[in-house]
């Protein structure tokens, strides 16, 4: 199911023995466009402390209750590594948090774990000693590597630059909750193409200038205009996704050059 960042924010996180807090942000990898962490504001329970939860611990969203159940107790969350400020998040902090929850880091697993430990009913990779040893070896090598984590809240509002001019600003992101990948960038083009909102594939992204709050595309304005029309009043169905995939398939693969 596709969820938007704006909708996910404010959802409650329910442990097995009570509420933990609410989602305040999502951290994503700007190289793979995968959600890596949920930032949860614990409110009065832990005096406003924020904690990071990997998507692998989340169950299916309960839309009517605006709640994500997690297979953790409140005590487990309370004892997790303390995050003083959620950006930047160091690789050391990520590693210690994964170690605490008993899952292999996403950079050492060979593929993203999001959802599979729960949705698939499988065993977490860390339970396999050989896999865990390999993951630990990679984690040691990459412990000090610079993560590509970015805040979804932060990038909202970034201006979007096509190869031949500005097309608008990022108003939201759409996320697939089965693997927690960012499927679409929601772009408000009202300053260029009046009255329109368009969806873009992250595969069309070429560069992000964080200091300038700019996201550069490797497509031109006309390519954006010719894309499958998007109606914000209607849900994005599989037929629309298929058209989008076909339209943006020739565009370069996901993977960005990022500028600080």
TrEMBL record:
Gene Ontology CC annotations of this record: plasma membrane light-harvesting complex
Domain PRC-barrel, residue spans: 5-56
Alphabetical list of InterPro entries matching this protein: Bac_photo_RC_H_C, PRC-brl_dom, PRC_barrel-like_sf
Database matches in Pfam families: PRC
Domain of life the protein comes from: Bacteria
Gene3D superfamilies: Photosynthetic Reaction Center, subunit H, domain 2
Biological-process GO terms, alphabetical: photosynthesis, light reaction
The name this protein goes by in its record: PRC-barrel domain-containing protein
Species of provenance: Roseinatronobacter ekhonensis
């Amino acid at each position: 199911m596709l969820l938007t960042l704006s909708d996910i924010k404010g959802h409650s996180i329910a442990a097995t023995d009570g509420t933990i807090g609410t989602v305040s942000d999502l951290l994503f990898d700007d190289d793979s466009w995968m959600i890596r962490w949920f930032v949860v504001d614990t409110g009065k329970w832990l005096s406003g402390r924020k904690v990071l939860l990997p998507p692998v611990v989340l169950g299916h969203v309960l839309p009517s209750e605006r709640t994500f159940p997690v297979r953790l107790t409140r005590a487990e969350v309370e004892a997790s590594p303390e995050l003083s400020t959620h950006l930047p998040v160091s690789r050391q902090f990520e590693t210690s948090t994964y170690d605490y929850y008993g899952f292999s880091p996403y950079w050492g697993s060979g593929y993203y774990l999001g959802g599979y430990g729960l949705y698939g009913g499988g065993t977490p990779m860390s339970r396999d000693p050989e896999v865990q040893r390999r993951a630990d070896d990679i984690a040691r090598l990459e412990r000090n590597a610079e993560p590509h984590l970015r805040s979804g809240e932060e990038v909202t509002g970034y201006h979007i630059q096509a190869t031949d001019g500005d097309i608008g600003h990022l108003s939201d992101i759409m996320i697939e909750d089965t693997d927690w990948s960012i499927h679409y960038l929601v772009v408000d083009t009202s300053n260029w193409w009046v009255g329109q909102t368009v969806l873009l594939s992250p595969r069309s992204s070429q560069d992000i200038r964080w200091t300038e709050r700019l996201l550069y595309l490797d497509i031109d304005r006309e390519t954006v205009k010719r894309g499958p029309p998007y109606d914000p009043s209607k849900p994005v169905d599989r037929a629309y996704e298929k058209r989008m995939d076909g339209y943006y398939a020739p565009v370069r693969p996901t993977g960005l050059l990022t500028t600080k």
